[in-house]
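Protein modeling request. Please complete all fields; requests missing the sequence field cannot be processed.
Requester role: graduate student
Desired output: 3D structure, token encoding
Chains: 1
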Amino acid sequence: MKSMFTKISRYRKLHDTVAVDKQGRTLVSRDLRPFAEATGSFSHIVEEGDRLDHIAYKYYRQPQKWWRICDANPDFMSPQSLLGKDTSATTRFSVKFYGSGNPPWHDLCKKLMIRIGVEDVSIQLDGRLAEEAVDYHGQPVKVTAEYFNYIVTVVYNRMNIAGADIKSIIESAGFNAEDPGDVGRVGQKIIIPPNIVG
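Delivered output (198 residues):
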């Protein structure tokens, strides 16, 4: 039987295996591929729009060798998650509450968590210092003021709900929300192993 794999395929050197399925049919396939050691000290910083085949071409001049990069980064369950493009997203929303009394955090969390696709919600208080000019007895004086902002971080499945929908839910709970900011993998490192297959 002629091999259907290219000479750079990770399955080319694997032996054929035969199995019988529930209907009694004999099926021929390739054996399981052992997980080759693929470590490296060189890293690539993820950029917006990165694709694994493009990264593989950049470092190996072979776009089909993207799997070497995946093997060297085993903490990620899929090639898409390696670049932060999987269906699961983590998005931060900067929110303000202008109503009276305490912000209705419980209602907000409840509204978000009942939506299909929302996996987790957390709320953090983000404080920062800023200089501003104030009038003191007719004289402008620079002071340092502390401003507080609330950040609502939502983990969700993009197949079920979009960031714009989450923003609408936050606003329906009585908050003002800025446009979302994804917490993806841009700026994060991935390991690029040497171009050696064991």
